[in-house]
């Protein structure tokens, strides 16, 4: 019996190591799925914003027919958003392109809302007010989902960069580092208010 005690000890250690590796791998897969879920929520909120735009534009067009450059800017920005291949979103260049196109679309929407300030009857229109409220809510949701995504992606990145995570990423074919949303360009500067 003593002859086999060391063999049983080695077998027990091997079983414990295998169980730990399986558990670690499963937790890594779980983190990856959490990041994917977070990303789909971000996409969903951006899509909600994109879907609201035609309705908002058509309401404003009824009042501000000579603001054609603003409408063209929104159309072009919305088109750029739709041209990005989101299947390659883990590529830093594609992620940066996505973020830049969304920022451009947000800027175009801001210009549209500034135009609406010049039309008091538009500002009193129920459809416009409802769409503006939905848009504001969507912008808040986008911010929240981006923050959640960044938290999940940061947890994933920590595990993916540490040992043995780097090994699991390669062996399992999981994405390497996940991209994070950053503040929009110029966000570090406080706006100037002049009276």
Task: Give a short overview.
Helix content is 77%, strand content 0%.
What does this molecule look like?
- This protein has one domain: de novo design (two linked rop proteins), CATH 1.20.1440.
- It is built from six helices and no strands.
- The protein has helices at residues 2-63, 68-82, 92-116, 120-123, 126-161, 165-172.
- Helix 1 (2-63) runs parallel beside helix 3 (92-116), helix 1 (2-63) runs antiparallel to helix 5 (126-161) and helix 2 runs antiparallel to helix 3 (92-116).
Assigned CATH architecture: Up-down Bundle
Strand content: under 5%
> Domains counted in the coordinates: how many?
1
Structural class: mainly alpha
Largest sheet: none
Total strands: the figure is 0
Total helical elements: 6
C-alpha-based Rg, rounded: 25 Å
Span between termini: 92 Å
Relevant terms:
single chain; mainly alpha; de novo design (two linked rop proteins); elongated
Secondary-structure blueprint of this entry?
Blueprint: H1 2-63, H2 68-82, H3 92-116, H4 120-123, H5 126-161, H6 165-172
Helix pairs in contact: 1-3, 1-5, 2-3
């Amino acid at each position: 019996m003593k002859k086999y005690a060391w063999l049983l000890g080695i077998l027990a250690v091997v079983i414990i190591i295998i169980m730990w590796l399986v558990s670690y791998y499963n937790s890594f897969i779980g983190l990856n799925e959490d990041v994917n879920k977070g990303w789909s929520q971000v996409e969903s909120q951006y899509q909600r914003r994109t879907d609201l735009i035609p309705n908002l534009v058509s309401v404003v067009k009824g009042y501000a027919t000579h603001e054609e450059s603003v409408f063209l800017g929104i159309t072009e920005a919305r088109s750029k958003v739709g041209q990005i291949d989101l299947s390659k979103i883990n590529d830093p260049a594609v992620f940066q392109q996505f973020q830049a196109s969304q920022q451009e679309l947000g800027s175009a929407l801001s210009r549209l809302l500034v135009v609406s300030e010049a039309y008091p009857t538009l500002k009193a229109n129920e459809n416009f007010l409802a769409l503006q409220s939905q848009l504001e809510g969507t912008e808040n949701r986008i911010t929240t989902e981006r923050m959640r995504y960044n938290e999940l992606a940061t947890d994933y990145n920590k595990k993916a960069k540490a040992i043995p995570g780097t090994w699991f990423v390669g062996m399992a074919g999981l994405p390497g580092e996940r991209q994070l949303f950053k503040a929009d360009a110029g966000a570090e500067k406080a706006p100037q208010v002049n009276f």
